[in-house]
Amino acid sequence: MWNGSRASSGRASKSPWGLIHLRHRRAYPGHPRLGLLRNYAMDRLTKIEHLFCKRILQKQSDLKKFIGHNEINEASFDPAVWFHFLIGIKDVLGNINNDVAFIATLLIKQYLNDRFSIIDFDAGSKAQGAPGIDIEAKTPAGKTIIGELKTTRPYQPGFGAAQRTSILKDMTRLEATAADFKFMFVTDNDAFAILTSGRFKADFKTVEVINLIASQA
Description:
Blueprint: E1 12-14, E2 20-22, H1 47-69, H2 79-93, H3 96-116, E3 135-138, E4 144-150, H4 161-176, E5 181-186, H5 189-195, H6 198-203, E6 208-211
Parallel strand pairs: 4-5, 5-6
Antiparallel strand pairs: 1-2, 3-4
């Protein structure tokens, strides 16, 4: 059985949303639905997913307009101008962390489709930051799947204190919850390396760690 905690040996490809990810062909060769979601255009998303993607596109448009009408430079340095410039960018982008988590959840949707032929998972059905397990799904055969998503980038070896507390909480919840498949999905190579070694590997044996944005190819 393929172990998701190992680095994939697939090759990088670009998804229909413009994101780089790895094809896991060697993980489950000949899978009849492999790559189906990669052929999806935005009009194949669910209504909620499409709405979130349109909001992100609108942020991109608004940011371009803002940058086009505002600029800072070294020659006319003014802290007040620089401050308002950065606040303007922050206002345009809003809670960008939620947008990052949503797109990462679309990558999880691709993964679930590729590995389990799950096609009815809605990446926008659970509000980002809402309590409870991030990912809940069932395979066509009725097997239960749970997962947590962390887009955390460790800011020191082994995670910072608050990062480590949050990840331990999620890993403990996964370990204690009954399910046929349990996943910790991450989007950072350093986070992946930490979670697949040492105490994390020893203490959470039933949880597979999946690197959604692997660069080991």
